[in-house]
Structures are given as C-alpha cells and as structure tokens.
Amino acid sequence: MGRWAGTAVLLLLAVLWGTMVPTIAHLLKTWDPLFLATLRYLGGGPALLPALLLIGRDGGRAVPFWRVALLGAVGIGGYAGLFTFGVAHANPVTAAIITAAGPAVATATDRLIFGRPINPHMLPGLILAICGCVTATIDFTRAGSPFDLRGGEILILAAITCWSWYSSAAQRWLKGWSQLRISCVTMTTGGVTLTIVYLIAAALGGVPFPPPVPSSAEDTLVLLWLVLVLVAIGVLLWNFGVQRSGVVTASLYLNLTPIIAVLILSLGGTLPNLQQVIGGGMVILGILWAELATMRNASPPPAGIDEAPGL
C-alpha cells in the first residue's frame, strides 16, 4: 500500500510541477529572480504551519540545529536560488527538458555522498531518459553551437544536485519526523536564508528594492499558485514520495514534468519541435523501463527511510 500511495503522490506531483517552469518564466517578467526565489519558500514553509500545529505534533527526536540549518540553506535555499536564476537565463523549453537529468543526478548523489549502490536494472531507463534530454535540447539548424544554451543550464543542474542531496539527507537526518514537519521546518529555514541573502544583495545595490507590487490580478493568482501549491504542497508531496520510493525512483516520475511543461508552453505559443517530441517520448520510455525493472527486481528501501512516518 505504501508503494502505491507513493506512486499516486508522485504522479500528482509531476502534473503540478509540470507548471513550475512556465509559472516562474511568467513571474520573472515582474520580479527579480532572487526576490522570487526568496518569496517562494519564505511563504511556502509558514503556509504549512497551521496544519503542523493541528495535526503534525509527531514528537520526533531532537536533531542538531546545524543539520536543519544546512538542509534549509543548501538544500532549499541553494536549490531555489540556483533554479530560479537558471530559468531566468535559459530557454524555457530547454529549462523544462533539462530537468530530465534529475534521476541521473540523484543516482550519482546517492552513490557519492551516501554510498548507496546503483541499481543496475534501472540503468537502461536512466540512460534513455538522458538521451531523451539531449535529443530534445540539441538543434542542428542553429548557427554555431547546435545547443540553445544560454548559461543558465549549469545552474539548473547545480540546483538539481542540491535538491537530490536534500531529498536523501532530510529522510536520513530527520528520521522520526513526519513529512509535514520536515517540509515546514526546512522550507522555513531555507526562506529565512534566502531573505538574508536578498537583503544583503539589496543593500549592495545588486537587486531592486523595494520589489514591485503585482501588476495585475493574474500575477497575484499565479504567485499564489507558485507559493501555496507548487512549493508548500509540492515539497510536502515530494518528501512523502521520497520516503515511500527513494529519491532515484521519485526523480524518475518527475521526468514527466518536462513533457507537461512543454505542453503548457505550447499553449502560450512556444511550440515544441519534432526533436523535442521525440526526446519527450524517450524520457517517458525511460521512466517505464526503469519502473518495470525496479518492480521485477524489488530491492529494500533506502537506508534510513524504511520506517519514516507519513504525512
């Protein structure tokens, strides 16, 4: 039952986070990337506080403060800042597709940092997903480099690395905490960290201050969607899915998000080309391959995650 619940949550999350890149790309027309990254988590973490006070008193064990601070600052803050700046300096379709590297990054992170062995049965699916990412990104008709690279892509990959580390470390370091508590505390810590960085940058003249107010009701609604749904609820669902399935399998499901993002962007006039469609199909096949291989060769859940509490 736990695995099926995790699967359902991750599928829902893939649909929700498929709107992440288009949402951020729209809001960047109004706000500075650093301010937007700050607002996402400074609002998203406290948004879960009422639910935590009502139902989330799990009595989890005490942990050193530095662990919570590091999870918030590097995992949440590093991810949010790098990802937002990456999207600001990348083609939105390329930014959506490059997130397909998530499973490979998660696999490498789990192996190098936490010593978890690589599941060989998943490798063909991972490779197929990466090849799909490259196929969707490359453009042989472009003068000079065939890739539509603008510099933000490396920031997006760095953000995914921070996120993969956070996903595994949070389940190990905060074992015994509910996913609601983990999400609320780490997002709030990350939001505070980003706020400090933003205020320092503003004092040095690096970002505009004060930030502009929303220019329309549409901007306000899109911002609320980002903070309350994609961040507050999204991170909670993600931690729940990682607890049930592990970070690598969870990342595989999120390979659906580029496909959804491209479909959303196409509604706004950014139509995918044939290579992007083929690349997207390869990503989906990679997910299916890896998931079926995992089901046929089931292994124990990741160390430190087997008996973590639920939402």
Automatic annotation (TrEMBL):
Main location: membrane
Classification via InterPro entries: AA-Vitamin_Transporters, EamA_dom, EmrE-like
Residue stretches spanning the membrane: 35-56, 68-87, 93-114, 126-143, 149-168, 180-201, 221-240, 252-271, 277-295
Domain of life: Bacteria
Subcellular location: Membrane
Residues covered by the EamA domain: 6-135, 152-289
Keywords of this entry: Membrane, Transmembrane, Transmembrane helix
Tagged with keyword Membrane: yes
Membrane topology, as annotated: Multi-pass membrane protein
Family according to the record: Belongs to the EamA transporter family.
Name of the molecule in the record: DMT family transporter
Source organism: Dongia sedimenti
